[in-house]
Design a protein that fits this description.
Elements: E1 7-15, E2 20-22, E3 29-31, H1 34-40, E4 49-60, H2 67-80, E5 86-90, H3 96-106, E6 107-108, E7 114-117, H4 130-142, E8 144-145, E9 148-149, E10 154-158, E11 161-164, E12 169-170, E13 179-180, E14 188-190, E15 194-196, E16 210-211, E17 219-223, H5 230-237, E18 244-249, H6 259-270, E19 274-279, H7 292-300, E20 303-304, H8 310-322, H9 327-334
Bound molecules: aspartic acid (ASP).
Aspartic acid is lined by residues 15-17, 61-63, 92-94, 118, 120.
Length: 345
């Protein structure tokens, strides 16, 4: 039998705590280069995986993340897609769920693993969670079964768990276990072995990668709270130039039934602005029409977001609007499962 070829994994370093090491002189945290990484994690040399790396010129704290950086990541993946078997994207954890969601839409026809990971403590700190996160993320990015990648989607690996990226939320700013995927099962768990939840993994039909880099961020967010005023609601809904509003509602997609509120929404929808209803709850879904307090919304043309996370809602809209689709087409696509982000019943 011919010897199996070594898997090749490209590490893309965008920034975040994981790649910071302490400067011995100034004691401040600064980004590493790849040699510094292998110096910090000598285990990487023992891998039966061929590693290469690309570091962004100006690594960022992910709170400075921007769609232009998502495009840079997507283009880096596109350029190297045929050269490697998988990718590990090192990224700050703060907005990692947004980046993972966005990439899942931009990279259509993906058939290789894109594993985002990071850490809560820098790699140079003794108790860092970064080492285990990087090592296992690389192993998953290089994992194959019968010559085929096991994972064929955009994921987040953090603290022994692999998640579908566009289902995640960052829910803890202090614990190592920083992510959750409330509406979708974990894709794999790393213990003594990495146990893949094969039924939950995405099985892409399309085998040809198509990278969509047009994103439109003309999106407003209306988060409801009891007592929200007409003036605040108007200031958001009447923002000049917006094409969509993500409305964060209560429970199963419910909102106040006050006439002024429904009228404001009606006028917004009349202008061709998409209003997408997602719930403020972390788990569960929007079911417009279940209660009287959401039946009105359905009637006037608010779009139910089912179990979309807020992160997936924002990035899916950016993606769909970026394709300059008509409002009608955007609404149609919003209700379809494009990249595993939605549970359709
Ligand atoms: N603020 C950092 C970032 O998101 C936190 C982290 O790396 O986890 O870039």
């Amino acid at each position: 039998m011919a010897p199996q070829q070594k898997s090749k994994v490209l590490i893309i370093y965008t920034g975040g705590t994981i790649g910071m090491i302490q400067d011995p002189h100034s004691h401040s945290l600064k980004p590493f280069d790849f040699n510094a990484l292998t110096a910090q994690i000598p285990e990487l040399k023992k891998f039966d995986i061929e590693l290469s790396s690309i570091s962004f010129k100006k690594p960022i704290d992910s709170s400075n993340m921007h769609p232009t950086v998502w495009v840079e990541i997507a283009n880096t993946i596109k350029t190297n897609y045929n050269k490697v078997d998988g990718f590990v994207v090192l990224h700050g954890s703060d907005t990692m769920s947004f980046t993972a969601s966005s990439l899942s839409f931009m990279l259509q026809g993906l058939n290789k693993p894109i594993i985002l990971t990071g850490s809560q403590l820098p790699i140079g700190i003794i108790r860092t969670d970064g080492k285990e996160n990087i090592i296992t993320a690389i192993e998953i990015a290089g994992a194959k079964h019968k010559g085929q990648p096991i994972v064929k989607e955009v994921c987040i690996y953090f603290e022994y768990k692999l998640y579908r990226g566009n289902r995640t939320i960052k829910y803890n700013s202090q614990h190592f276990d920083a992510f959750k995927s409330p509406n979708y099962p974990v894709l794999a768990e790393a213990g003594i072995e990495i146990n893949y939840n094969k039924h939950a993994l995405l099985k892409p039909k399309n085998k040809k990668l198509n990278v969509y880099t047009e994103l439109n961020n003309d999106i407003a967010v209306l988060k409801l709270f009891p007592g929200i005023s007409k003036k605040i609601t108007q200031s958001i809904l009447q923002t000049k130039g917006i094409r969509a509003v993500v409305m964060e509602t209560f429970g199963a997609g419910n909102a106040t039934t006050q006439d002024w509120f429904i009228d404001e929404l009606k006028q917004t929808i009349k202008k061709g602005i998409v209003v997408l209803n997602v719930t403020q709850c972390q788990e569960g879904e929007v079911m417009q029409g279940k209660y009287e307090t959401s039946a009105q919304l359905k009637k006037i043309g608010v779009i139910g977001g089912y179990d979309l996370t807020f992160e997936a809602a924002v990035t899916k809209l950016m993606f769909l609007l970026g394709q300059s689709k008509s409002t009608k087409e955007v609404i149609k696509q919003l209700q379809k499962n494009i990249s595993g982000e939605l549970t359709m019943v």
